[in-house]
Design brief:
Blueprint: H1 13-26, H2 30-38, H3 49-75, H4 80-102
Helix pairs in contact: 3-4
Length: 112
């Protein structure tokens, strides 16, 4: 999207520091943060270590499913109980991650 309209604002020192701090927490530029807020989104902060621990678990689940498929290819049959167990684990994991890290918070702004 090409942005052709320039807007200029004046902030107090405290407001400018707040904007800078919040943009840094979300890993966005100040302009990108303002644009998201104008559209009614409340961006999430950069995830903490729990997120990266969860991603390692996700990788482990993927590796387990891959090993099951390699074994199935080699032997000509599949351990459906083990595969279903890993797939259930994957679906629960996905729902937890979405709930915890991805769903945006509801905006309480009354002017939207």
């Amino acid at each position: 999207m090409k942005r052709t309209i320039k807007k200029q604002f004046w902030f107090s020192r405290g407001e400018a520091q707040d904007l800078q701090k919040k943009a840094k927490k979300t890993c966005l530029s100040e302009a990108a943060l303002v644009r998201l807020l104008l559209r009614g989104y409340e961006p999430k902060e950069k995830p903490d270590d729990r997120f990266y621990d969860a991603m390692r678990e996700f990788s482990a689940i993927g590796n387990n499913i891959h090993q099951i498929s390699v074994k199935a290819n080699a032997l000509g049959f599949i351990d459906t109980q083990k595969l279903n167990s890993e797939l259930d684990r994957l679906h629960k994991f996905q729902a937890d991650m979405e709930r915890q890290f991805l769903r945006p918070g509801e905006s309480n702004l009354k002017w939207q």
